[in-house]
Amino acid sequence: MTTLESISKLNKIFKSKKWTEIDIDEYVFDNFCKLLDNVKESERKLIIELVERYQWISFSEYQEKILSTLESVEDEKIEKLKTIYFFPVIKPEDEGGFKSGQFLIYQIKAFKKYLKKYTDIKFKYVSKFEHLTDSTFELKENETIFLIDDYIGSGETLNACLEVVTSNKNITNDKLNIITIAIQKDTSEVIKKEGISIYSDYFSPRGLSDFNDSPILEEKIKVMLEIEKLIPGGNHFSLGYNNCEALITLARTPDNTFPVFWMKHRIGKKYFDAPFSREETFEI
Amino acid sequence: MTKRKETLLLNIIENSGNIKKLLRENLSYKDISELVNKLVQDELLTYVDEKIVLTEKGKIHLTDNKHLLKETNKENWIQPENKSRIKKHERNFIYLPNQTELDF
Predict the structure, then answer these.
(1) pLDDT digit string (tens) for A81-95?
(2) CB A187: neighbour CB atoms within 10 A?
(3) Is the CB of residue B46 less than 8 Å away from at least one CB of chain A?
(4) Residues of B in contact with A11 (CB under 8 A)
(5) What residues have CB less than 8 Å from B69, skipping those under 6 apart?
(6) For the whole model, what pTM was predicted?
(7) Scanning A67, A113, A178, B11, which has the fewest C-beta atoms within 10 Å of its C-beta?
């Protein structure tokens, strides 16, 4: 695949995924092309293959996605409820910071009236862990907790959050529900096994492992590791943090995504911006 | 001008040349990809097993317009290499070359 062929293919992908409607699409497209121009033929082919599976959820889609995820909770579950406690998925040290969970909770608060299924349910918005960990805090039969976030990758933040929340013995796993725009499929399966419910708009597969069988898989991973050699510091995030092989950009690009999509690469002494650079793609 | 760019693109594809020539003509990557689409629509280019090749019509078009590829504007024959230009130094500036860098 020549550079020209890959660029032409990329243009088609952008159009079919409707990425051309996103404000910063030309910046992303341009950086993709420079990357394609800088790598070898086989590497180019792999990047194009991965872009076809890539999810780009822009900030403007957050409201619609989080509300539709809430609507996807089973009717039987909702009918039994009187009160839902909303809490962001955050690490204890991030309490009071500006994380996407808090932002999404604000949107839920602002647009509750559009949530037809929840008309008769009282929403309570919790901002501090201490409210939930207080030993007097108890959930009645018709009460539950919704933990909110835009994306769950390898689940480190979620586990840190769950550890604190469930330190209150009155909060059991069956009372916990995770509501998120996107989650890594592997992580969601682990959490489900623990008896916690998960609702997500998108279950993100592993970009290479879930689509290729041995020995092609090993070959493709080898090509990807070759690309990663161009990225200074890329080996810390090889195949995405915790080998997640994620192919997703939300308001920000999670570090679980293959680093080639969000870290600068270097040719000689020259640095090239990544398509979904973690600073520039943050659209607020 | 557009015809020149189209011909340049056909020439690059025919000779598996580098697209940097098009970038130097002030076309963005986006413009280049759109130009490929246009030439496919005009039946000058086509895809064969995901490869872009010239059609017969494209080959004729290229031969007929090859003269456009020649740079006729003498001003463009020799261009300043701006990337090597440095800021003017002050009178008392002393330049100390980096000892480890032998190719300065």
Answers:
(1) 999 999 999 999 888
(2) 23
(3) no
(4) 30, 33-34, 36-37
(5) B4, B7, B8, B11
(6) 0.84
(7) A113
